[in-house]
């Protein structure tokens, strides 16, 4: 991939897509094509085909998706399955039809079976039952992986896939009903400090363990893979270490400056007991994350605490 090549970043306003755009621009790739969802509905096959016919991108970063946390995944099950299937199918097929040189498809660690051995190796895919709360999203992402593999097998397309772990960073979603656990905790503790609350409620038991990766690290990994990886098998992208939700909450509380009590609402679902990625394949290729969790949380909080991304009355 050369600096002058035309690159389409699908989902450029999301947390992942915006990080990829920032990374590409920082590295001197300035022939970047983006479209908002109102300008191009990726669920519309005719519109997607017309876009590829007109713009003729040579490389595609496929980061567009309908995303959310446990509540959103479990509530909008049909939407998560339908929207993500349509988005990825249209982009993958158009990339084939219009002879895209290379595409990177981004999935999620939720593709793995709920009770898969830890850490999660790439070969554990489809070796057990999925976590019920996010099954539709997981099935859609598995379909995306298999689409890329099938188009490679049948047509020789250089379509690769990467599965990021739990992500955080700039442009995250802080809506308490639809966000992931880390931004939800940041908002909860920030609000508690602003209100002078003496305690903060954490959903679930706090025992599940999760791995987190700063989205800027993911963007760097995506560019690395686009430049260096051309194989069929998908790769895990993560930090290779995890923390319990309770430990995560305590770290956020420390960063935000909350001194009160942490309580647990055990009526809320825990989700998968543990999701730690085995990232040895990626490490062996020569890439490793740079931003440690507490440093990343501090940077994120410093960035958002004085903005209107979340207000105590929202």
Q: Could you characterize the architecture of this molecule?
A:
With 314 residues, the protein is an alpha/beta fold. The chain has 2 domains: 7-168 and 212-237, NAD(P)-binding Rossmann-like Domain (Rossmann fold), CATH 3.40.50; 181-209 and 242-275 and 291-304, UDP-galactose 4-epimerase, domain 1 (Alpha-Beta Complex), CATH 3.90.25. The protein is built from 10 helices and 13 strands. The longest helix has 21 residues, at 77-97. It starts with 6 loop residues before the first strand and ends in a 10-residue tail after the last helix. The mean pLDDT is 92.
Structure keywords:
314 residues; alpha/beta; Rossmann fold; UDP-galactose 4-epimerase, domain 1; 2 domains; 6-stranded parallel β-sheet; 3-stranded mixed β-sheet; 10 helices; globular
In summary, what is this structure?
By secondary structure, the protein is α/β, with parallel strands linked by helices.
Task: Provide the number of structural domains.
Answer: 2
Quantity of strands, as a count: 13
Which class best fits the helix and strand makeup?
alpha/beta
Nearest-integer average pLDDT: 92
SS field, number of helical segments? 10
Secondary-structure element string: EHEHEHHEHEEHEEEHEEHEEHH
CATH architecture of the largest domain: 3-Layer(aba) Sandwich
N-end to C-end Cα span: 44 Å
Per CATH, what is the topology of the largest domain?
Rossmann fold
CATH class of the largest domain: Alpha Beta
Under CATH, the homologous superfamily of the largest domain reads: NAD(P)-binding Rossmann-like Domain
Note the overall shape: globular
Show unreliable segments: none
Query: How large a portion of the residues is in β-strands, by DSSP E?
Result: 5-15%
Give the spatial strand order of the biggest sheet.
2-1-3-4-5-10
Helicity, as a percent range: 40-55%
- Rg over alpha carbons: 19 Å
The main β sheet shows up as: 6 strands, parallel
